[in-house]
Amino acid sequence: MPIQFNCASCGQPIEVDDEHAGRVAACPYCQRVVNVPENSTLAPLAAPLARPATDGTDAGDSPRGLPPIPPLEQPDPITQMAAARGQIFGRNALVCAVLVVVMFSTSLLLAVPIVLKRLADTTSQPNAEELSRILSQSPQGPWYMASMCGATIFALVGTIYGLLSVRLCRRGNWRGWLSLLVCGALVAWTLLSIVLQSVLM
């Protein structure tokens, strides 16, 4: 005896064979996958026959003259696994990016008083060359060095995680893209400063 029920998505009446009770079927109206109840929830009426999502037989003409519904494509499990790993890498990269921002901001807050003290220690009004020399000198101090080293290390790790995340899952992976932008910017800035220092020395 056919099972008749309303689609949970669009509310249209659906009729399926009783052999599909407890399985899923594709709604012929909205194409959404819905659960088939064990028993009919509607009074018997002329409802279109829905094709079960797990039915792999060739689509013929619908018994009620409706166009055949193509079978639902099952996602590739390897692709799903790669996307899940990409999301995990993206979360790890986002943690690294947050740590980079915190440590880099801490190093800047520690560097400002040191630079201001150096400017105050100058006997006269510093000219452009002396001001450039003071600003180019790296502030010394254990907390400053620790925060800069930590930011650099987490930036490298976050860049690697971000690249892996974006490679495995590109669509909807805002964590990976954002982390790659933040961590990659600090890595690029660090490499550029090393190159400039080696050229100027």
Please sum up the structure shown.
The chain is mainly α and 201 residues long.
Order of helices and strands: EEEEEHHHH
User: Helix/strand/pairing class, anyone?
Assistant: mainly alpha
Beta strands, count: 5
Radius of gyration: 31 Å
List the strand order in the largest sheet.
4-3-5
Beta-strand percentage? 5-15%
- Report mean pLDDT, rounded to a whole number: 77
- Per DSSP, the total helix count is 4
Please mark out the parts with pLDDT under 50 across 5 or more consecutive residues, or reply none.
56-63
Please summarize the sheet with the most strands: 3 strands, antiparallel
Query: Tell me, what's the shape?
Result: rod-shaped
- The count of domains is 2
Residues in helices, as a percent range: 40-55%
| Distance, first to last CA | 88 Å
Question: Would you write up a description of this structure?
Answer:
The chain is mainly alpha-helical. It has two domains: 3-52; 77-200. It is 54% helix and 8% strand. It has four helices and five strands. It has helices spanning 77-121, 128-136, 142-168, 174-200; strands at residues 3-6, 13-16, 24-26, 33-35, 51-52. Strands 4-3-5 form a three-stranded antiparallel beta sheet, with no helix packed on it. Helix 3 crosses helix 4. The radius of gyration is 31 Å and the shape is rod-shaped.
